[in-house]
Write a structure and sequence with these properties.
Radius of gyration of chain B: 23 Å
Largest interface: A-B, 52 and 63 residues
Strand content of chain B: under 5%
Largest sheet of chain B: none
Largest sheet of chain A: none
Number of domains of chain B: 1
Number of strands of chain B: 0
Distance between the termini of chain A: 51 Å
Structural class of chain B: mainly alpha
Number of domains of chain A: 1
Number of helices of chain A: 4
Order of helices and strands of chain B: HHHHHHHHHH
Shape of chain A: elongated
Oligomer: heterodimer
CATH architecture of chain A: Orthogonal Bundle
Order of helices and strands of chain A: HHHH
Helix content of chain B: over 70%
Chain lengths: 114, 253
Amino acid sequence: MQVFPFVVVAWILGVGLYGIVTSRHLVHLIVCLIIVQSSTYVLLLGVGYVTGAVAPYFFDVPVHTPAVDPVVQALALTDVVVEAAVTALLLALAVQAHKRFGTLDPNELVQLRG
Amino acid sequence: MTARQRLWAFLTGMAGLAAFYLWGLAGLPGFGAYPGPYGDIINRIALAQTNATGVVSAVNFDYRGFDTVGEEFILFAAATGVATVLRHLRGERERAARDEALGVNAPPTSEAVRMTALILAGPVLVLGWFLASHAQTSPSGGFQGGVVLATAFILVYLAGQFLALRRISPVDITDAVEAVGAGGFAAVGIAAVGMGLAYLTNFLPLGTIPGAVSSSGTIALISFFVGLEVGAAFILIVSELLEQTLLLREESR
């Protein structure tokens, strides 16, 4: 069984989580969250892959050509949209946090709130 | 909690996560040995049922259309949320005046960047329109096309200045376009209900040539509305964030 794609998923998830835990800057933290979410794209596309199959587009190939699972690809698209929405909101909150507290270091934000 | 303690807590959690991940991995079919059946079934029937050669779009805008309504409204809510979080607060001017970055004058945009952005803006607009209107034929669709459309407007900001972006995409019009895009998708579904069909049933004629732009009924229409919504939402989000640094700085100078 070929496990390389699932190792890549674990690696992306791991470095992203490590980045979040050790982050010293809110924007860096948000980027790390994007990386964590990127691991789900690789996982979704990985589980839907069929060896030797084409993309699920039958514009210039006959309908019965083996193709990869289009359902997980559609889910990956949803994933990207949700990520964009979450990132936009978090960046807006980071702007407000900087205005309110004058810092973007999560550790100092904790101290300020007591 | 010190950084060291936090790291240990994180490593403990990661050990647990790794155990569960390996356990789950053991139950998965091997990479490339997709067991089906849903993907295979949809690949076989989508073209005959919808006349769309792009099965991913057929899934997104037809089979899974109801989910995609929710997905689109997530983005709608996010754009509204960004505008709400970044609204002008009372005393904003004073707070902005204390901003440490205020004394720093950004260097002017280089001629190379301005020229490249100017040259790209037109073709990018066409590309975005192409993507948003070809969901049913090729790997594209309203979501991808909308983002590229928004990029064309943001290139105008790169080429000129923020006020030029505001002039070509005034907030009122962008808001209206976003509302039309979001409401249009929902309205297509309700139109189907009005005809006695289930919500978001593909009720338009499917066309005769599979893979033609005019084929696939509501898939193309919904993709168009999604393109409007996504493009407008991204222009709003980016210009809200730009406004925070540029206009507030402007006022306090």
